[in-house]
Design brief:
Layout lengths: L12 H13 L2 H13 L3 H8 L13 H8 L9 H14 L4 H13 L1 H11 L8 H17 L10 H32 L8 H16 L14 H16 L4 H10 L7 H8 L3 H22 L1
Helix pairs in contact: 3-4, 5-6, 6-8, 7-8, 7-9, 8-9, 10-11, 11-12, 12-14, 13-14
Length: 300
């Protein structure tokens, strides 16, 4: 009986599993081991009926991996009926052991779950970036193998195939999430790298703003040597434009520039330099800010 199959990507991990499965089915020792399991678990009659193995005296010895897979994927290729549940539980029980038969039992479980594994892998592949389908496929098979050998599925109530798929998906998502977080750390580290310095044009524009601001006495007294930030340059350029348009006087621009800086000039000191009181200087700055805002709204 031909077992249901689904399309694979040529040369991928699932195609390799199919090739390996064909080799296992042709191995007489493997066939004998599977037949012994089925008879020991009292599942041989039911599997033979599903697999159409015949009723001759030696029918049990004709049962092998192919017939077992046919019982695990009845009709539509999905694990679901009572016989499939019983066979899968028996395989998972054996797969939890530590001998060679445990490895073979787990391998049969993986083959039975390949349709579900392909769906899982396709569901976890991102259209942009991330791992390829082949990479996710390898991770899915590894997670499936680990869960099949864990011994945690067969004692659990409910359908073993569903529990097996859910645990496999949980393992797969956890590994992919850790992988993405690791890449995220790299991106976060990249964000901490210092920004490249300004180009020649930006440097020339900054030098021009500094020169014009110095000529208009907008630099805070005794702070000329302080490094000028990009935000400070933007403010100075804004004040220079307002002076050119007539929205602000030189004194108004000074009141703003001397206050809104990394180290503001105290109002008492600034007022003394301008020959006014600290209160008068504060009122001048407040009116200047209002006129600057009004000019910006008009320009917008």
């Amino acid at each position: 009986m031909t077992s249901p199959t689904i399309p694979r990507l040529a040369g991928g991990v699932f195609s390799q599993l199919d090739t390996d499965w064909a080799r296992l089915c042709a191995d007489s020792d493997v066939q004998a081991a599977v037949a012994d399991w089925l008879m020991a678990d009292q599942l041989a009659d039911s599997v033979a009926t599903v697999a159409d193995a015949g009723v001759a005296d030696a029918w049990a010895r004709r049962l092998g991996p192919a017939q077992l897979l046919a019982a695990l994927r009845p009709g539509n290729g999905r694990l679901g009926d009572d016989l499939a549940d019983a066979v899968l539980r028996a395989l998972l029980r054996r797969a939890a052991g530590r001998d060679r038969s445990a490895t073979l039992a787990a391998r049969i479980v993986v083959q039975a779950m390949i349709p579900a594994a392909v769906r899982m892998a396709r569901g976890q592949v991102r259209p942009f970036g991330g791992r390829s389908f082949e990479d996710v496929g390898h991770m899915t098979v590894a997670a499936l193998w680990s869960v099949a050998r864990s011994g945690t599925i067969h004692p659990r109530p409910g359908r073993p195939a569903a529990n097996l798929a859910l645990d496999t998906l949980r393992h797969l998502c956890a590994e992919l999430s850790a992988d993405r977080e690791l890449l995220g750390d790299d991106l976060a580290a990249a964000q901490m790298l210092p920004a490249p310095g300004p180009g020649p044009l930006a440097a020339a524009e900054a030098a021009e703003v500094r020169a014009l601001a110095a000529a208009a006495d907008l630099d805070a007294p005794d702070h000329d040597a302080v490094a000028v930030s990009e935000a400070r340059l933007d403010l100075l350029a804004l004040l220079l434009d307002a002076m050119d348009s007539g929205a602000l006087t030189a004194a108004d621009a000074q009141a703003i520039a001397w206050h809104y800086t990394g180290t503001p000039v105290p109002d008492a000191e600034a007022g003394a330099r301008a020959g006014v009181s600290a209160g008068a200087w504060q009122r001048r700055r407040s009116r200047a800010v209002g006129r600057l805002k009004a000019s910006l709204r008009t320009a917008a």
